[in-house]
Amino acid sequence: MIFRRRRLPPDLHDALRAADRRDAWQRLRDRLRPPWWLRWGAALGLAGLAVAIGWQAGLIRPVAPIPRVVHGIPEGTPAPLARFTARVGVVDGDTLSVGHERLRIHGIDAPEMAQPCERAGRPYACGDAARDAMAGILGRGVVTCAQLDTDQYRRRIVRCHDEAGRDIGAELVRQGWALAFTRFSTDYLRQEAEARAARRGLWEGRFDPPWDWRARSRN
């Protein structure tokens, strides 16, 4: 090969020598180049070192995932721990409002606003009376509630306590202006029995259970 190159034209001879040098340099680089797994390992190690340094320096902080919110309560929050304090309004005897949102009181059923009852032989608006009784229990309207569920109307089902720590649902039943809603809960049967025995509120006269009155009104 050397003999043949000496007989070549000078330009071609120089080009071949340059190509040989490039090939030799490439072979040397290939020998010195580390394997792929070593290169990846080094890159990962450097990345981990950078993260550790950034963490120690306070430059990197974990980003908390943004929870999806359903009716004002983050999804996945255990119901008994989904607590909040708010100033509420009274919609009716068993429903409160926070802005445009409705809160349905757990375990009780109060007369509907259009529902008539009878007392001393005369009809009266027992829905209005139940609403007024709930407003009296709330006072300034500040309550602390725990969400227990969400109903078919997308209202939060809540158990709430007033500023004195009273369970407002239990108190309304005790005063006789709501019934224990045993279809869903038996929590307030004792308060209902007390109100009936003392003939307080609704028990002073005649009335239909709210669930029966609603059923007839739909027909």
Automatic annotation (TrEMBL):
Keywords: Membrane, Transmembrane, Transmembrane helix
Annotated transmembrane regions: 36-55
Domain annotation TNase-like: ranges: 90-205
Domain of life: Bacteria
PROSITE patterns in alphabetical order: TNASE_3 (PS50830)
InterPro entries: SNase_OB-fold_sf, Staphylococal_nuclease_OB-fold
Protein name as annotated: TNase-like domain-containing protein
Organism name: Roseomonas fluvialis
